[in-house]
Design brief:
By secondary structure, the chain is mostly helical. It folds into five domains: 1-23 and 30-109, no CATH class; 110-142; 154-202 and 260-434, no CATH class; 440-542, no CATH class; 562-705, no CATH class. Helix content is 53%, strand content 6%. The protein is built from 27 helices and ten strands. It has helices at 17-20, 28-71, 111-115, 123-145, 154-157, 168-196, 203-216, 230-235, 245-259, 262-293, 316-345, 350-364, 366-374, 377-385, 393-438, 497-505, 508-511, 527-531, 551-556, 558-561, 585-593, 601-605, 608-623, 629-642, 650-653, 657-664, 680-683, and strands at 90-94, 101-105, 147-148, 296-297, 301-305, 308-315, 389-390, 444-448, 454-458, 493-494. The protein has a three-stranded mixed beta sheet with strand order 4-6-5. Strands 8-9-10 form a three-stranded mixed beta sheet, covered by helices on one side. Strands 1-2 form a two-stranded antiparallel ribbon. The radius of gyration is 52 Å and the shape is elongated.
Amino acid sequence: WPQPRPGSAPFLEPSEPWLRQQGPTCQPSGMMQSLEARFAAIERGLTEHRFALDGRMAELERHFADLERRLLPGTGGRFPYKPHAPQAHLEIEEDERGGGVFCGILTGEPAEDLRLMETGPDRIEKEDSAQDLRRKNALQVAAQYFSYTVRESCWDACVFVGLSALPLYTNIGLLLSVLVNVCIQTVFSLLIWKYVAVPSFTTQLVDDMRRWRYRAHTFEMSDTTTGASLANRVCTGDQSLSLATGKAEWTEELRDWLTGCNFILCLLAIFLWGMVILEDVFSTVHFLSAAYGLPWGDATNITVREGRLRLKTIFHWRALLVVIVAAMRLCISGLLLYIGTLWLINTSAAGDLILNAVALSFLLQCDELAYNVFCPPTVRAIIRGLEPIPLETKMQRLPLRILVGGEWLLLPAFVYAMSYGHLVPSQDLKKEVLDAVCGGRQNFVFAVDALGRMVYAKTEVARSPLTSVQEHRRNVIERIIYNASHASEVPAARVEPGELRARTIMSHVSLTKFSKCADNPRELQYAYGALGVEASTCADLRPYCLEEAHAFARATCPQTCGCADPLSGLLQHHRGCPQHCMKAHARRAVLQQLPCVDKPLSRLSSADGWSNFLEELPRVLANQWRHPHRWIQERMVILRSQGCDALKSPRVLELGLTLLCGPLAALCPVACKCSTMQGNDVRLFCPSLCTSPPLAGAAPALAQP
């Protein structure tokens, strides 16, 4: 029942006598009189109540005028928004208990536009005063609305893990969703680190490509139709390739990378990826600030206000959980930032670079995806209905400073460090790799003959040659290939393409058939290609005379290696020694002076030929005959201890009398049975007193393993 204000007449009194006296015995005349009297009383009350309302309205008008003077100083009580009154809606709410008035402008044009319609000499002064007011209150307004809105993600949902108001199965589902999110992002990061972030271009790759380049210029790998080298076909993009097709595509990608704008594109991708990570870091810091700004207590309280949920207090153990989750989130963000940047740097193709950048951004969206799929609906409804959490003033400074420093200091510094620490070195390695594959001349093929000498032939270029990244330096005779292990050019003898094929199939005997039995210093320039050493005299090749694979040393320096000396003990005389050495006058003179008796062990131990034989024999048995090491050492012990008598031992004779007596016949003619030996190869080393001279012009037989 409405009550009148003090001092005014009541509207109706339920305890009036005429209401209590109503009944079946009530007379009409008395009722009319009572009604007339009551209506007169009501009229007097309404009149008094109207006067009270008029006074209240006057009071409200005074309050409104006072508000105008406070909000708009210097206007003299004039309301400057009159031209916009039809566009503005003023809402006045009366607080009965406090007696105050709230006036709010809900719609209307900004005050800056309204001031332009004023005229008068003091308009500029009014604008300056209003602008000063805005500057003074800008930070206060920003602080009032600075808050954190809880995001719909598993990271923010962890604040409700273990909430007593939620059922057990809801808490379990929420915990599992958080764990799934952590596992997905951690596993993805480790996989990228292990399989993708490994540098694709290294110094080892440069050396491998140089070795491949050596193989790509061999005669065996050349095109049988055009004669073009494999390196030339790869670098010119020959579509008829049946080998090295992957290297052809890879070379094309490298060329596009180095000649295009991919370097700038990679920098832009790194910068954008850094912005994505920093946005996630700022969100984490604000989330931590919001949890720190909430009151900590013995329980987590959530209240309802105007249909919205509000987080009032947070349990202190739950706040500690928020700190742990935020630290974990920051670690994952930092790991993703580093390995994601390495992934972008190690990407070669421009299209793959864009796809990888999109894939990295999708990796951060796994949080929201896991939230929408695995998070319980109850928790999602609570988070959706939560009001923004206001941040305290002392906590507002840290995120703002991090934001400004991250955008204008941290991010450019990170991009600069990664560029000069990884991107620029990777760019240089790509240039070196392309230079190793396609640099220098490509229109030649080479081969190595049976003596180890390198020969080459020029070929016709099937297509226009590529512009190399770096031109190879000058060569001694004709540059063949750059060797990374030795900073010099490998000289080779130039031949015609038809002769090159013949050189590859000729044997040692054919190559040395017409060679003289004398040292040939002019051939020393090919020593590096055949032996891998620089040689200026034949004395430099002496350590290689006993090596089975170094026939070049015996063919180039036969006198130094002892090809014409029957006492040299040279076991591989048939590999590289010129045939003219077997018929040399000096050799025949030595054989004519030797006695037909075996030398005793004491004299054999001091003979150079015996030492050379014992040094060379184990290598021949291991490489040609493939005997085990222990088996070889047992025979070598017998030879060292018995000398020429060891040739009578059955265990030593397992090696073959022809193999042993070839170099030892001059030292052990009796043990080698020079008087009865019919093998021409052995008789060439037997003293003349033991047997008849060999047939003139006979060539030594090759000892076959």
